[in-house]
Every structure is written in C-alpha cells, then in structure tokens.
Write a structure and sequence with these properties.
homodimer; three-stranded antiparallel β-sheet
C-alpha cells in the first residue's frame, strides 16, 4: 500500500505549511498580521452576495461544464474593453485559477514534458505540474534586475524537445514585477520559433502602479492561437473564497479538449458563478480605486524596507507582493521565530519564506515574500513590528 | 503545438456530449424529459440557502485547504450515526466527488498504474484516471446477474503488479445495484491479499430500496487503513450545483499527502461549504423521505419497462439509475433519434447510451442508463413516450 511517487515527491505548500504554527500562537492570544498569504482585506463588492441572495431556483442544479453563459459573457465583455475578443466557445470557467492551470497543463503536456517558468514563481505551479508529472524548468530572474527576464539567448538555452510551454504570472506573484512590452514580444518570438504554448497567468491584471498598464498577453499579435490566458476573480475582486477562475484561448481545438476535462468534473459551483458574473461587470472606476489603495500599501512597505539595514528589494510595480532579501541566513527560521518567539505588545507579523518560490536549489533562502494585503494602518504597524523583529533577531 | 496524448485519447463524456442536440431541439420548442443525467428535481433543503444568505463576512475569504471545520465535523457526525468514527484529520473537503476521486487517484497511482473497476461504471471515472495517466481494468458484471460481482477467482485474474486499488460506486451508478455484505467482504479479502486500496464511492448511500440498507465500506473491519470513502452532497441532498464532496480515510498518511494536492488548489468555495455543513445535519427522517420518493419512481420505471417487449432489465435496489437492454442495435442512434425525430405531442425523452459506461469494447451498445430523477407524474409520462418511441423506431 505505497503511495504514489508523484504525491510523495510533492512539496508541502510553503505558504500554507506554517499555518498550524500561526493558528497555535493565535490561540495563545497573540495577534498575527498575515502578510504571508494573498488574502486581501478589501470588501468583496456587494453585487456578489446580492446576486447569490437573489438566486431563486429551488434546486441548486448542475451548471454547464463549460460554465454559466452569463459569466462567460461577462468575462468576454471584460476583455473586450481592452480590444481582446473571445468567442463564446473560447472561454471555460474553472474552480479558481488553480484548476485552470492544472487542466491546461494536462492538455498540453504528457508525463515527462517540461514548462519554462521564470523564477521565483507562484509556488503552487509546482502542485499543478508535479501532480500530473510535468516538470518546471526555471528561468532564473534576479532581485537586482527587478526580476525582469534574462536575454533571449539565456532563455533559449533551457529549451529541449520536451518543452511545451512558457508559463508566467504578469503582474508577477511573488515579485510584483510587470513585464515590459519588449519582454512580452520576446516571449512571443521564442514561442513561435520553438512552437510553444504561452500560458499567461493574469489574475493580478489591473494591479499596475506608477502609471504603468499591465498589458494582457491577449493583445500581442501573431501568437493568438498559442496564447492561453488564466483569469480569476480572487484578487481583483477580493473574492478568494469564491474559487472562480477561467481559461481563455483563441485556440478552439485546445478549448474543446480541455472541455473534456471540465465535463469529467461536471461543473463549477453554480451560485459562485452567478455572483462572479456581476463582479466582471464592475467598471474601470472600481479597478482604479483598488489600484490606488494597493499603491498606497506598496509605498508604505517599500519605504519602510528601504530604511532597514541589510534589506535588498526593488520597488515592485504590480500585483500586491514583493520579494525582499533579509539580513538573515535562513528566512524560514526567521519567520517561525517571529511567530513563536517575538511580539510587540502581543502582536507579530507572518511572512512567506521565499525559498519555495524557486525551483533552483539554494536560491531564495534569505528571501521572503511580503503580501501587502492589509489596510494602510495595519501595514504601518506590521512594518514597524518587522523592523523591531529584525533588530532583535540580529542582536 | 501538439496537444497531449492523454487529453486527445480522452473520450467526451457520453452523458454530456449529446447535450447540444437536446439544447437545439428545445430551442425549436420540443419539451425534453431529461432522464439522461443524475440531476434530481427534488428541492434542495432550505437550510442550504439559509446558511449562505446568513453568511455575514464582508470579505469572501479563502477557506482552509482541508475544508471548513464546521463542515468536517458535520460529516463526521453523519458517519458516526452508523458507528463509523473519523478523526478531524481523516476528512478532506473537495470540489465534488469528482475532485475527491482525482486526488485519490493521483495520490495512490503513478502513470501506468491500474485500478480495478466493476463495469458498467460511472463514465467519468475515465476522466479522473485518464487525465492523470492511470488505467482502468474492468471487472465485467452482467445485466442478468443484476450487475453483482463475479467470483473472487475471476477478479483475482485481473490483478497485476501495477494494480493499486479497487474502485466501485455502492449503490451503483449506472446499475442501481447494492453490494451484498459478502461481496464487500470479498473485496476486503482481495485488498488484503494483494495489498490494494479500496475506493468506495458512496455518494448514493441512503438510496436503498425494499428494506435494504446500503452499508458503508467504513463498517468493514480489518481494512480501515486501506479504505477510502468518497462522499458528496450532490445526490442525497439534491445539491449537484454546490460541488461539495469529501474524502474520508483512517489512513492518516494518505490524507496528509492528499492534503498537499488540496493546498496547491488552495480551497473549496467557502459559501458552499457553509451551506453544506447544514445539509449533513439533516436527520434520518429526511433520508427516509427521499428514499421513499425514489422507490416510487423506480417502481414506475421498472414496471413500464417490464411491459415493453424486448427489454432486459433487473430490478435495481438503489441509487436512482438503472441500465436496460433495449430492442435496438445501437442505443446512441436511438437516443439521438428520440431527440431529433420523435415526439408525442411535442414531448420527448432523453436517455444516456450505456456504451460509454463500459471499458470493454463492444459491451453496452444496445443498453441505456435511465436516471429516474423526475417526479412520478413526469416519470409516468416519460415512460409512455419511451414506449411509443420504441414502437415507432422498430416499426
């Protein structure tokens, strides 16, 4: 009764595995500022619950395997605002961006195939690929370059006959980096030359600061048939617990085949789709409001970090994360110490050790990801506690 | 830009692939009685929507990867009624029984491994295994035996070093067969002798007619560490669109490893878990009421089928399906003909061709699955239309 190699080899989520420690110290009465998980404190727009509360069917029926037509059309209209046109049969609703990525991986890779991913990357990419026997080949990016891509020749070196796709999140989790247009065009060029799919995880689109505009990969010409866009309501609409994501692609054959996977699992929760359809209707004013709020939070975090001796961190331009090199040897040990041993008047801060965001052994050991998902007052307090914690830890 | 072999080789859901035809004829004004899908017309108990409507958090937060503690405890209490004890860390909440089965498969099988499944079986088992490169080895069961298991020696013949588990639904979809205690004990014996896991899909538990009691595999002694129970609110509580399932096992190592897969996809929809926690609290009176209703429906279907010349069908004792051999050569052609060419006063019936429920080539070609999920009046009318349809088709 052995378990499978694939599950035994899978790492525990580095973001979630320290949760039991946090739960324990909170039970003991400590207050924990959670900067370790991308769970925003922003109110979920009321239209979401209103739509669900008004749902008037007596039976909570199966939805369509492809998704609720209302939600699909709402998403299509959202993309259309940026001139990106998807037909009705080019969108699939999924159980969060997570299922969107798992299904995409299954549909384009057989066991042993490879996907290129700039590192550090969203750690759960390991789960979506490892569970279905696909390997991630990291494209290393560096803090001192603001985590931008290396040159085309550096990337091409990593391609083998097993390489099927390039996957990246843009704006980036955990880096907060927004790809420049020339980087996106380079990706498109490589994909065409080596016949690869492009999987563009755009769940943080809209979180673009300092006047930047996060461009969707859907706007890049000449690669429409090989571009797959991953969407989610979790972050933009602060509805993480709704678990509504989607896959968009002009490659109808791909969508038709992923639909087979959707059919096997029948459908995504009906009520959540009803609510999510309303979220995508929110106008640009909503997005601008959200963006301004997060820019303020980013500024607080970044300016505090600048003042702490020994921290290396470029100013991030998007999403709501940043990766910082701390003046410690082992960031995970520091994070656990902050939870278990340290507090300022009964309060402490929880961060994510960044090692798990790298595929290359040894990278990120002294780095953390900070999610600036709390209101500005809480962020100011949390940064103060972090500063004091580092002082004490290193004394 | 090839798609993966595993997705290309996957069959379209035989239950869902004819849906576009039904949608088209309905648009043209035809009324279709849907006996093709296990979507009950029974009202979802009001406690489900009430709990959701009373949910008072301003942010729809992530839930725990393992699931909401309230729901987990509610499920534990449900099993305890039958003397089956699960600890808190022996239950995982999943996106329907579908995800429960996919995760279980990934956790106990590597690519190329095999799972024994009595056929005909729930066709989506193909999706949950094929997508992750696991092969189903069918144990053929026959209509004339009421789809009960063959002898131990017949089953053992199918076991190879690649065999990791026996999977079955009990009560059975699509057969409506309830395993006898001696069959369950035989499965336990085989599992022990050949060191296999037992995956018991019990989403139809409670639907047991004629005084029979569907026994949970969790009651069978001596195999607790190798038994995995798959649960769902979809059928018992008529909440298919909620997508709440769960995995139960006394094998803590297994649960701990499946939790890694749960962590990668973060969580199951928060609101649906809040609602589902109330469903599992419904008492035995509710289950008895549901069972009586379905028994009435079963009787209508079975007695009509008995009168139609050329139909072979044993009386099913559970779930809400039966498999019938029709006096036609190709059941799929007949189902399409019923949709496109036939009606009684503008009304017709949709059934599921059963071929897709078999893994052995050639079996089930003249069989259909009938889901008796509509109220008794509708079932009487639908059976009348089926009878007339068969008459005309064969004339």
């Amino acid at each position: 009764m052995e378990l499978s190699k694939r599950v035994l080899e899978m790492q525990e989520s580095p973001v979630r595995k320290l949760v039991p420690i946090a739960t324990r110290v909170k039970k003991q009465g400590k207050k924990v500022f959670h900067l370790n998980i991308g769970q925003p404190d922003i109110e979920t727009p009321k239209v979401f619950m209103e739509a669900i509360n008004n749902y008037d069917s007596k039976v909570i029926n199966y939805s369509f395997s492809q998704g609720e037509p209302k939600l699909i059309n709402s998403i299509r209209a959202y993309f259309k605002r940026d001139g990106i046109i998807f037909d009705e049969d080019e969108v699939l609703i999924t159980n969060g961006g997570s299922e969107a990525l798992t299904f995409t991986t299954i549909a384009i890779c057989d066991p042993g195939d490879e996907i290129l991913v700039p590192e550090p990357f969203y750690t759960n990419y390991n789960g979506f690929t490892g569970g279905v026997n696909v390997n991630i080949k990291p494209i290393t990016t560096l803090a001192q370059d603001g985590f931008h891509l290396p040159s085309k020749s550096e990337i091409i070196k990593l391609i083998t006959p097993k390489t099927k796709a390039i996957l990246f999140s843009n704006p980036g989790n955990p880096t907060g980096t927004i790809l420049r247009l020339d980087e996106m065009e380079m990706i498109a060029e490589i994909a065409k030359e080596f016949d690869l799919f492009i999987i563009s995880d755009e769940v943080y689109r809209g979180f673009a600061f300092d006047g930047l505009k996060g461009i969707s990969m859907g706007s890049i010409k000449g690669v429409e048939d090989r571009t797959i866009i991953i969407e989610s309501v979790s972050k933009r609409y602060s509805a993480c617990g709704a678990r509504i994501g989607s896959i968009q692609s002009k490659n109808k054959k791909l969508i038709k085949n992923i639909l087979k996977l959707c059919q096997a699992r029948l459908c995504v929760a009906t009520l959540e789709q009803v609510g999510a359809a309303e979220l995508y209707k929110l106008d640009d004013e909503y997005t601008a409001m959200i963006k301004d709020e997060y820019q303020k939070r980013r500024d607080i975090v970044y300016s505090t970090l600048q003042k702490i001796p020994g921290i290396v961190c470029e100013k991030p331009s998007g999403a709501f994360y940043l990766v910082a090199k701390l003046p410690v040897e082992d960031a995970e040990e520091f994070v656990i110490w902050m939870l278990e041993e340290f507090d300022v008047d009964g309060e402490t801060v929880m961060l994510s050790p960044a090692e798990g965001f790298y595929a290359t052994e040894g990278l990120g050991k002294d780095e953390v990801r900070i999610a600036y998902v709390l209101n500005t007052d809480a962020m100011i307090r949390a940064m103060y506690i972090l500063e004091k914690g580092l002082e004490k830890y290193n004394s």
